[in-house]
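Example record

One chain of 73 residues, shown exactly as stored in the release files.
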Amino acid sequence: MMVIDPDMCIDCGTCAGECPVGAIVSDATEEGQKWLELNRECSKKRSNIQHQKDPLPKADGLANESDNFNSGE
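Predicted structure tokens for this chain:
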């Protein structure tokens, strides 16, 4: 699971188009609000991405899940 530090995000939208499973949503939506605090907490615990990697094979299977909020655990 990749997270975005909402305090560092400049709302350019580039990440949404690059996400291979369409998991990035605006924090202006109700769905986005529930991810906002999780991203804020997790971004403080994880290191910055230094190199592009391929998504994990199971990411394709999670893309169609109806509730992925806890799928990243």
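Notes: Residues 1 and 56 are 9 Å apart (CA to CA).
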